[in-house]
């Protein structure tokens, strides 16, 4: 198992190229199951999660090859409808094969998913939605066993709260359903827009892209797709916050500046300069950090996936900030590790009260989930002395060459075996 060693106190200078989005790549990989033949996905990040998803598709009968950031996935040989526990246990997004398998094969057997321990994240929204489309299901020894007679049947599906993966799963099932499906209170994340573009390019008929209501007119068949994965807004945000923590000046290229308005607002209020161009961002910090309050919300609100990172930034400010988490009930596990580095944080229900001290100290810390890992890297980059981060396999699930990208812009950071 690897650990990351960081010598703090070095401002970041230079340019970083942003990779494709993990949260877009995973559903798009699953969507290839809907149409037999070779699909081409471009700008695909090389992550532990994308490799796991490809292994899952391979177990179902698909084949694939990668050249750089381009994936070719051939799903013509699909022969299985079971997603086993051994593959699903490490990644919640693996439940996204449920919709495509039901749409194409009429049945699916999918292990209940795992992933980061940041909350319960049940799949009841998925199952209730598929029930509305005519699916029968039962839970048996940790597996969801689902089937439908003939084609899925169009219907109205209304979520109590917006769910990204449930929206994506129902959407992928509905494109091959008989009749019209309407998804109400759908999640609006840009990654869902990427999926809608792919499905429409395959011959689906989906209206309402980017809104909370999606209308899907089912078709009888789809064709293979060619599409590019959108840039990773969470990776983009992580590097923006890293400059806020360390000082210096970075240019982020191959990104989409339109995707993070809520983060720019908070960073500018905190004293971080952010300048937007067509596909580039320029970020710099030259003065002291000011404390700001943050509340996570569904898109286009402040992303829960950047909450841990901005908390690390607020530890370095001079003032009091209130960080409220409304999406996941157990997403403050990084607090104890930041406290080991000298942070003054108190948890009160769904909020964390951060008393910024203006500095952190290097310490041995342990990553507890994907985004907590990124927050500890940010803290280590800014801290006095040496920080050692263990259990960094979490980081590999969602960041493509994070250590390499940071080291090329002035960070003193490396990996080594524990």
UniProtKB/TrEMBL annotation:
Top EC group: transferase
Family annotation (NCBIfam families): murA, PRK09369.1
Species assigned in the record: Desulfurivibrio alkaliphilus (strain DSM 19089 / UNIQEM U267 / AHT2)
Domain Enolpyruvate transferase per the UniProt entry, residue ranges: 7-406
UniProt cross-references to InterPro entries, sorted A to Z: Enolpyruvate_Tfrase_dom, Enolpyruvate_Tfrase_sf, MurA_subfamily, RNA3'P_cycl/enolpyr_Trfase_a/b, UDP_GlcNAc_COvinyl_MurA
Protein name: UDP-N-acetylglucosamine 1-carboxyvinyltransferase
EC number per UniProt: 2.5.1.7
Domain of life of the native organism: Bacteria
Subcellular location: Cytoplasm
Gene: murA
Function noted in UniProt: Cell wall formation. Adds enolpyruvyl to UDP-N-acetylglucosamine.
Family, similarity comment: Belongs to the EPSP synthase family. MurA subfamily.
Ligand binding (UDP-N-acetyl-alpha-D-glucosamine): 92, 305, 327
Catalytic activity of the protein: phosphoenolpyruvate + UDP-N-acetyl-alpha-D-glucosamine = UDP-N-acetyl-3-O-(1-carboxyvinyl)-alpha-D-glucosamine + phosphate
GO cellular component, one term: cytoplasm
Record: active site: 116 (proton donor)
Keyword terms of this UniProt record: Cell cycle, Cell division, Cell shape, Cell wall biogenesis/degradation, Cytoplasm, Peptidoglycan synthesis, Pyruvate, Transferase
């Amino acid at each position: 198992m690897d650990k990351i060693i960081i010598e703090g106190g070095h401002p970041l200078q230079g340019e970083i190229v942003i990779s494709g989005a993990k949260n877009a790549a995973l559903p798009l990989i699953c969507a290839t199951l809907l149409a037999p033949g070779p699909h081409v996905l471009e700008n695909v990040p090389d992550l532990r999660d994308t490799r796991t998803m490809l292994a899952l598709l391979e177990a179902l009968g698909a084949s694939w090859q990668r050249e750089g950031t381009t994936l070719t996935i051939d799903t013509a040989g699909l022969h299985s409808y079971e997603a086993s526990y051994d593959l699903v246990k490490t990644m919640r997004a693996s439940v996204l094969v449920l919709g495509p398998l039901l749409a194409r094969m009429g049945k699916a057997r999918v292990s209940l998913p795992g992933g980061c321990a940041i909350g319960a994240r049940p799949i009841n929204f998925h199952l209730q939605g598929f029930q509305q489309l005519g699916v029968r299901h039962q839970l048996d020894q940790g597996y969801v066993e689902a089937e439908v007679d003939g084609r899925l049947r169009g219907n109205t599906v209304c979520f109590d709260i917006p769910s990204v993966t449930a929206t994506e799963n129902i959407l992928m099932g509905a494109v091959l359903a008989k009749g019209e499906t309407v998804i109400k209170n759908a999640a609006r994340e840009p990654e869902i827009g990427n999926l809608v573009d792919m499905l429409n390019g395959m011959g689906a008929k989906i209206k309402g892209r980017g809104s909370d209501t999606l209308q899907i007119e089912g078709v009888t068949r789809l064709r293979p797709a060619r599409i590019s994965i959108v840039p990773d807004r969470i990776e983009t945000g992580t590097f923006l916050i890293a400059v806020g923590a360390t000082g210096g000046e970075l240019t982020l290229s191959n990104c989409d500046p339109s995707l993070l308005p809520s983060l720019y607002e908070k960073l500018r209020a905190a004293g971080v300069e952010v300048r937007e161009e067509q596909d580039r961002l320029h970020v710099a910090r030259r003065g002291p950090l000011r404390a700001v309050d943050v509340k996570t919300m569904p898109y286009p609100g402040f992303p829960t996936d950047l909450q841990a990172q901005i908390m690390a930034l607020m530890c370095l400010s001079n003032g009091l900030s209130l960080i409220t988490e409304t999406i996941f009930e157990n997403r403050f596990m990084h607090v104890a590790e930041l406290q080991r580095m000298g942070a003054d944080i108190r948890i009160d229900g769904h909020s964390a009260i951060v008393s910024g001290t203006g500095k952190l100290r290097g310490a041995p810390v342990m990553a507890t989930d994907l985004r907590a890992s990124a927050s500890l890297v940010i803290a280590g980059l800014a801290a006095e002395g040496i920080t050692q981060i263990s259990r960094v396999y979490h980081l590999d699930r969602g960041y493509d060459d994070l250590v390499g990208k940071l080291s090329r812009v002035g960070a003193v950071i490396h990996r080594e075996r524990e």
